[in-house]
Amino acid sequence: MFNNVKKIIKALCIVSFFSFATVGNVQAQLGDAGEILRAGADDANIYLSEFLSPFSNGFGASLNTGWFTTANSHSTLGFELNLNVGVAMVPSTALEIDVSSLGMSNLEVTSGSNTTPTISGEDNSNTKLGQMWTNPQTNQQEPLFEFDAPSGIAFEYVPAPMAQLTVGVIKDTDVSLRFVPTTALGDFGELGLFGFGVKHGINQWIPGGKVLPVDLSVQFGYTSFNMSTDFEVDPETGNDIYNPYNASQWDGQGLEMETSAYTINAIVGKKLPIIAVYGGIGIEGTTTTLGSPGAYPLTVPNSNYDPTSSDPAENRQKVIESLSAPIDLEMEGENNFRAFAGFRVKLAVIQLFANYTLSTYPTANAGFGFTFR
To answer: Residues 6 or more apart from 311 whose CB is under 8 A from it?
Structure first.
């Protein structure tokens, strides 16, 4: 399962590379796909929530950038078409997990440090995770299962690229659209993106507002990103394991992720012939959901174990159980209040722009585009 979270993150970074070359070839060493599920759904969800939190927070923060390049709006039917990328910066406090503080029921550290990396942390780990049990034959404590804790990608930035069309309508109002149709990415699965935003100038509603030396506006934006991928988690095998299921039991496995992000902003700025500057404050929120349709093999002690029995369902120490849709996560973003500043340089119909947002996950955004009126 970790390998397929890796597929999603790698796919996003490949898409981001189109607009942001410094992302490079990001690789996540995320461990064996199915091992985390051998601890059961509850522990898998707890650990995954902590492991993926920097990506969830950072990606949502990045999606909330790039909505505007000035404080003023276009004239009616004026437009701009932009390509930009937001890059969130993961704080140092979100690079490690204290496994002993997670309160998991079965999964524990079997050797090594109690501290493991998050997805944005170091790309190495000396920790093994697993579940201890008492072997009925030896009466000794030993791992029921054990695996290397997943490593991070050693990359403390989370990029999100966007293509956006903005059109001016009536009453000093801009309407923006972001859209990527559901697209197949080979082994990485499918992804799609949709977003809409509205910016409205408020000088017209303030007494004397039209003679103010600055433009005032309010803006709302919403973006939804979704991705899915197929993967394969096979049951453990061994002479001490009984598996009552056919191979078809594990068909239909996959991983589905959706991130929704919204932002509401108050903007003040000044437009000059070549350059425009702006700043403001706002609020934002993000939610990332992660699900795993299908059935997954879970290795457990055999409660009917009888070494004298001739029945394979009884004379094996371990048995495979089927766990349905074990991953069911909803992660809320940590960013709430935001302050931002930015500028745009316009050369004929071409514009270059950049901005910086100060929040729990600070975010920079830059891009270029074409604008008319």
So the answer is: none
Q: Where are the beta strands (DSSP E) in 47-189?
A: 79-89, 96-98, 108-111, 115-117, 128-134, 141-148, 157-168, 173-184
Cβ atoms 36, 47 nearer than 8 A? yes
Q: Please give the DSSP secondary-structure letter assigned to residue 45.
A: H
Backbone angles phi, psi at 245, to 5 degrees: -105, 150
Whether the full predicted model's pTM is greater than 0.70, yes or no, is yes
Residues 216, 205: contact at Cβ < 8 Å?
no
The helix/strand count (H/E) of the chain reads as 2, 19
Question: In angstroms, rounded to a whole number, what is the distance separating the alpha carbons of residues 95 and 89?
Answer: 11
Q: Which of 34-43, 107-116, 177-186, 209-218 has the lowest mean pLDDT?
A: 34-43
Burial of residue 368 (number of CB atoms within 10 Å: 0-12, 13-18, 19+): middle
Tally of residues, the chain? 373
**By the 8 A CB rule, do 82 and 178 touch?**
no
pLDDT tens-digit readout, 27-52:
333 333 346 766 778 998 999 889 88
Report how far residue 23's alpha carbon sits from residue 34's, in angstroms, rounded to the nearest whole number: 28
